Structures are given as structure tokens and as C-alpha cells.
């Protein structure tokens, strides 16, 4: 239970009608979960306007309404707080309600188009192995120390974030590593958090359904770094063309990492095999168990963050060499018939190109590369032909298939992917809508020595079709088909 007046700190209010000397048992932005003594925040969403549910929230017992537009008829027993931006108000209310847990541990946010889950998870693993109690908020899972919770979003809503952070503080976590998605920044889910550090990975084509222009997407990402204060560190990718831009006007202690360009933390890939790479980080040579120059770049970011959080270089290098790849990220096995199957979460043109380049680098003989890939429904459509072009250009055979069609017609998505295939590559293409059949076909086509890449779903254990999530896991299936 909290006093309303105590949770209003840093909330920029336009007007308050009613008493602030009242007790609040819960806060929510969903009228369907309102109970007595609940504070309800009305949010204009992408589907509906939460302001339309104010009366319903009051009927269910809400005692405080936070909104951008006041209702015409006011209820005498309810306190109304009018704010400029409901999402931002919610972020501060949630932080205050849970006693500002982000100030009680070292919180590091990772943002960028690709690599967030990889970096946040590697940092979680590194600090856990080094003996600390650590928290993780990621696309794949939430971890509170060693306890595992399912993740619903890459960056949860601000109430969930603060609830998790408070649990982390209660169980003695000293660090939390979290992914900061562009939706999360735009919807102010992270606006009230006290970050000790921020990391930028890269910026490429994604989410242009939501952000409309690439410049808007870029500016949203930058606003995360604008939020960092002087005591924080901000580490950017010197090899990304937007790396420098991200830290313009940033007040934090700025650092950069890079494999190509001059950077504070410099690295190089000296040798690669499917089992790992020999890397140079600053002046040290180490063997790591991840592959691909994009992962070398991720490891430099991990190194930079770990050093800035106070670990010794010796300890960091020792831990880096023991880190394994993250679930669904270049997860591979070699079958009894010597077919290599790789499952990867590449769901953007840039990620797909990187993974295919990495496979190219480790191909030793004239093996055939068969790629199975699709694109999600109700998401950025403009990446579909780009992914079609890349997959067909860089593979010997490609099978286009469904990846979470959601509410779209899978055949329409597939035709948009096929539209990107250049004339000389058309003969390489098969289209099989059913993803299980597509994977099975790839397994039948593959001969000893060949490589199968199944891209787009990584760790996901479902296929989402018209609002229903059916159990589906690429890795499980390919293992089953290659054994059979
Ligand atoms: C497009 C988007 O980001 N939507 C998110 C957003 O929902 P919204 O505000 O648009 O919701 P809405 O349905 O229009 O409803 C508006 C308001 O009315 C309220 N309402 C609605 C109905 C009702 O009966 N009563 C009621 O009070 C809702 O609770 C809400 O507050 O805010 C919700 C609460 O935080 C999120 O759950 C929801 O995520 C949806 C499920 C989603 O799919 N989000 C994806 C796109 C997303 O956020 N992805 C990023 C990762 C992307 C990446 O990096 O690749 C992520 O961080 O996960
Ligand atoms: N630094 C990187 N640069 C480019 N591609 C990368 C990088 N790191 C990982 N990838 C590719 O992107 C895929 C997704 O990686 P990861 O899950 O770490 O990204 P993410 O940013 O968390 O994605 P999401 O936005 O879905 O949460 C990987 O499977 C790999 O193919
Ligand atoms: N976080 C990403 C995941 C995409 C994964 C892909 N399998 C899909 O469903 O499009 C998104 O919501 O855009
Ligand atoms: Mg992620």
C-alpha cells in the first residue's frame, strides 16, 4: 500500500482534482485488472484509447484516474490527475510505487536493432559466473538470480519492469541487464529508470511499420542515450554509421568499441571455425565459443560494460572464453550423416546477411547451403523483399516459409518475400507455407556435409496464427527430421 501523494514524485501533472491523501493498493493501465483502491492510467494505444475505459475502471473500484484528457462528468469520490503524457506518468508512478528499485542496483540497458538479447544474456551469464546475484530482462526470458520467468516482451511495460526490479533487489541482485527496444523507448517504458550504463549495438532496417521513417526510429534509439546522466557510462559501436550519432549530447562517460574503425575498445577476429573464434581484444588473444564478426562485436560491448562495472580485465577475459551462444542464436548441431543444422533468430535483413556471411566464412568445402526463412505477419512489410533477395543470393537453395503469420494471409507474405528474388536466383527458390514441411524438405534435400540454416524464429516455441500460439520449435523439429 502507498500514499498517492508519495508516488507523484517527478510526475509532471497539469491538474489534480480530488484528494492526494489516499491509499493506493495497485496501479494498472488495463481496466480489466482494476480492483478497489487501484490507480488506473488511461493510455491512448495503437488499437484503442484507454480513456474510453475510465468509467469501467471506476465501476470496478478505481480510486484514482491518471489521464491526458479529463472526462466531462467527474465522480466526487475519485481523484483525477491530468498529465501531459500518460505513458511517461505511468513510468514514474510505477517506479515510485515500487520504491525506485532501479536506484538500488546497477542497471545496464542494451539497445540497437540486433544483438540486444545476445549482449544482455552474455552479461548476465558473465556476472553470474563471476559469483554475483544478477537479474536479466530479455526477449527470451526474465531471470531473477537463478529463477526463470517467461518473457512476454523484449522490454516489458513499466509496471512489470519495476516489479521485476523490486524482486531483484529483494533477492540481493547487484546488477540487472535489460534489453531496451525502440517500442519500449517510444512508449516511455524505461523513462523513469536510473541506468548505470547504456550500450548501443547497431541500427538497420526494422519496425518501419511502427516508427514510419528510419530517421524517427534512429531518433527514438538516441533518446535512450540522452536520458543517461553523468555518472553512467555509454558504450557505442564505432563500426556502425549511427554509432557516433547515438552519443551526441549524451552526458554519460562515452566509450566506443570496434573491429574496423578506431575505438577505445578494439578487437579483431584472427581465426574462425564453427566451434568458435580466436579474437584479439585490446592486446589480449582469447579463444571464444561464439562465431561471426557480429558476435565478436557483441563480445567487445560485453567486455566494455564488464570493465566499466568494475571487474578486472583478467577476470573478464577468463569469463568471456567460457561463454556459450545464447539459445536460438547460431544454435547448431551436426547430425550422424554429417549435416550441420543451424537455428538462428535472424529476422531482419542485416541479421540474415550477417549470419549467411558467417556461414560463408566457415564453409571449408563445396557444401550446399540450404536456407529456410520467412517473415512475421503484422510487422514491417518492407523488410520482406530485402530478406528474400539476401537469402536467395547467398544460399544454394532457399525455402521460403511462414514465420508467425499472425493475422495476415501467409501466401501474401510469401509473395512479398519472393518479389525480392532476382531473376538469376529464381531457380533456387521453393515456397512451402507449412514451416514443419519446409524444414522436413530441407532435411531431405541435404546431403552429407551440407549446411541447413533455419532463420527467423530462434528460441521461439510457438507459431502464431490468427491470435493462437501453436507449439512450434525449429531446433526440436530439425533434430527430429535429421535423426529420422
Ligand atoms: C504496438 C505495441 O507496442 N503495443 C503495446 C502497447 O499496447 P497499446 O497501448 O497499443 O494497447 P491498446 O490495445 O491500443 O490499448 C490501449 C490501452 O487501453 C487499455 N485497455 C484496453 C482494453 C480494455 O478493455 N481496457 C483497457 O484499459 C490497454 O490496457 C492499454 O493501456 O502497450 C501494451 C502494454 O505495455 C503492450 O503489451 C503492447 O504490446 C503489444 C502486445 C506488442 O505486440 N508489442 C510489440 C510490437 C513490442 O512491444 N515489441 C517490442 C520488441 C520489438 C523488437 O525489438 O524487435 C518489445 O519490447 O517487446
Ligand atoms: N551485433 C549484431 N549485428 C548484427 N546482427 C546480429 C548481431 N548480434 C546478433 N545478430 C543477429 O541478429 C539475431 C538476433 O539477435 P538478438 O536476439 O541478440 O537481437 P535482439 O536485438 O535482441 O533482437 P530483438 O529485437 O528481436 O529483441 C541473431 O540471431 C543474429 O542473427
Ligand atoms: N521482436 C521481434 C521479433 C520478430 C521475430 C519473428 N519471428 C516474427 O515473429 O516476426 C518483433 O516483434 O518484431
Ligand atoms: Mg531481443
TrEMBL record:
Residues modified as N6-carboxylysine are 221
Which Gene3D superfamilies does this one have?
A: Mur ligase, C-terminal domain (3.90.190.20), Mur-like, catalytic domain (3.40.1190.10), MurE/MurF, N-terminal domain (3.40.1390.10)
Q: Name one GO molecular function term.
A: magnesium ion binding
**What are its cofactors?**
Mg(2+)
Tell me where in this chain the Mur ligase central domain is found.
110-306
Q: What is this protein called?
A: UDP-N-acetylmuramoyl-L-alanyl-D-glutamate--2,6-diaminopimelate ligase
Membrane spanning residue stretches = none
**Positions with a binding annotation for meso-2,6-diaminopimelate:** 379, 403-406, 456, 460
Q: Which GO terms describe its biological process?
A: cell division; cell wall organization; peptidoglycan biosynthetic process; regulation of cell shape
Question: Mur ligase C-terminal domain location, by residue?
Answer: 328-458
Q: Which reaction does it catalyse?
A: UDP-N-acetyl-alpha-D-muramoyl-L-alanyl-D-glutamate + meso-2,6-diaminopimelate + ATP = UDP-N-acetyl-alpha-D-muramoyl-L-alanyl-gamma-D-glutamyl-meso-2,6-diaminopimelate + ADP + phosphate + H(+)
The EC number(s) attached to this protein equal 6.3.2.13
Q: Which UniProt keywords apply?
A: ATP-binding, Cell cycle, Cell division, Cell shape, Cell wall biogenesis/degradation, Cytoplasm, Ligase, Magnesium, Nucleotide-binding, Peptidoglycan synthesis
The family annotation for this protein states: Belongs to the MurCDEF family. MurE subfamily.
Record's subcellular location: Cytoplasm
Q: Which pathway is this protein engaged in?
A: Cell wall biogenesis; peptidoglycan biosynthesis
Just give the chief location class: cytoplasm
**What organism does the UniProt record list as the source?**
Paenimyroides tangerinum
Superkingdom classification of source: Bacteria
Query: What does this gene product do?
Result: Catalyzes the addition of meso-diaminopimelic acid to the nucleotide precursor UDP-N-acetylmuramoyl-L-alanyl-D-glutamate (UMAG) in the biosynthesis of bacterial cell-wall peptidoglycan.
What Pfam families does the annotation carry?
Answer: Mur_ligase, Mur_ligase_C, Mur_ligase_M
Q: How is it modified after translation?
A: Carboxylation is probably crucial for Mg(2+) binding and, consequently, for the gamma-phosphate positioning of ATP.
Amino-acid positions noted as binding UDP-N-acetyl-alpha-D-muramoyl-L-alanyl-D-glutamate in the UniProt annotation, renumbered to this chain: 31, 154-155, 181, 187, 189
A single Gene Ontology CC term = cytoplasm
Instruction: Please tell me where ATP binds in this chain.
Output: 112-118
Amino acid at each position: 500500500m502507498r500514499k498517492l501523494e508519495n508516488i507523484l514524485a517527478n510526475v509532471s501533472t497539469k491538474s489534480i482534482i480530488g484528494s492526494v491523501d489516499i491509499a493506493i493498493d495497485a496501479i494498472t493501465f488495463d481496466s480489466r485488472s482494476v480492483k478497489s483502491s487501484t490507480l488506473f492510467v488511461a493510455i491512448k494505444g495503437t488499437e484503442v484509447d484507454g480513456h474510453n475505459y475510465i468509467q469501467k475502471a471506476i465501476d470496478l473500484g478505481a480510486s484514482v484516474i491518471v489521464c491526458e484528457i479529463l472526462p466531462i462528468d467527474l465522480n466526487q469520490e475519485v481523484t483525477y490527475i491530468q498529465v501531459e503524457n500518460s505513458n511517461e506518468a505511468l513510468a514514474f508512478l510505477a517506479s515510485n510505487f515500487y520504491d525506485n528499485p532501479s536506484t538500488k542496483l546497477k542497471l545496464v540497458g542494451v539497445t540497437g536493432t540486433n544483438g540486444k538479447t545476445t549482449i544482455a544474456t552474455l552479461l548476465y551469464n558473465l556476472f553470474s559466473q563471476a559469483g554475483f546475484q544478477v537479474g536479466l530482462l530479455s526477449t527470451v526470458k526474465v531471470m531473477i538470480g537463478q529463477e526463470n520467468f517467461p518473457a512476454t516482451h523484449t522490454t516489458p511495460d513499466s509496471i512489470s519492469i519495476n516489479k521485476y526490479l523490486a524482486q531483484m533487489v529483494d533477492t540481493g541482485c547487484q546488477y540487472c541487464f535489460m534489453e531496451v527496444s525502440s517500442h519500449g523507448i517510444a512508449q516511455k517504458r524505461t523513462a523513469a529508470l536510473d541506468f548505470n550504463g547504456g550500450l548501443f549495438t547497431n541500427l538497420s532496417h526494422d519496425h518501419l511499420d511502427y516508427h514510419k521513417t528510419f530517421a524517427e526510429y534512429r531518433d527514438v534509439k538516441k533518446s535512450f542515450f540522452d536520458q543517461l546522466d553523468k555518472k553512467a557510462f555509454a558504450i557505442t559501436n564505432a563500426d556502425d554509421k549511427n554509432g557516433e550519432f547515438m552519443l551526441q549530447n549524451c552526458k554519460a562517460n562515452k566509450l566506443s568499441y570496434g573491429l574496423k574503425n578506431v575505438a577505445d575498445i578494439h578487437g579483431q577476429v584472427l581465426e574462425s571455425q564453427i566451434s568458435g573464434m580466436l579474437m584479439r581484444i585490446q592486446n589480449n588473444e582469447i579463444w571464444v565459443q561464439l562465431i561471426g564478426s557480429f558476435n565478436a562485436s557483441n563480445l567487445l560491448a560485453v567486455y566494455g560494460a564488464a570493465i566499466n562495472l568494475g571487474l578486472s580485465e583478467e577476470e573478464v577475459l577468463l569469463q568471456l572464453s567460457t561463454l556459450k551462444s545464447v539459445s536460438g542464436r547460431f544454435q547448431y548441431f551436426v547430425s550422424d550423416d554429417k549435416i550441420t543444422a543451424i537455428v538462428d533468430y535472424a529476422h531482419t535483413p542485416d541479421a540474415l546477411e550477417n549470419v549467411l556471411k558467417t556461414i560463408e566464412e566457415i564453409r571449408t568445402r563445396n557444401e550446399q547451403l540450404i536456407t529456410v526463412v520467412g517473415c512475421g505477419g503484422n510487422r514491417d512489410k518492407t523488410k520482406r523483399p530485402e530478406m528474400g533477395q539476401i537469402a536467395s543470393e547467398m544460399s544454394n537453395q532457399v525455402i521460403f516459409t511462414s514465420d508467425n503469420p499472425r493475422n495476415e494471409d501467409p501466401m501474401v507474405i510469401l509473395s512479398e518475400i519472393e518479389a525480392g528474388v532476382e531473376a538469376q536466383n529464381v531457380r533456387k527458390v521453393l515456397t512451402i507455407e507449412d514451416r514443419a514441411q519446409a524444414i522436413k524438405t530441407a532435411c531431405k534435400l541435404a546431403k552429407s556435409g551440407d549446411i541447413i540454416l533455419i532463420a527467423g524464429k530462434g528460441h521461439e516455441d510457438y507459431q502464431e496464427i490468427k491470435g493462437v500460439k501453436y507449439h512450434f520449435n525449429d531446433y526440436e523439429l530439425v533434430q527430429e527430421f535429421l535423426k529420422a
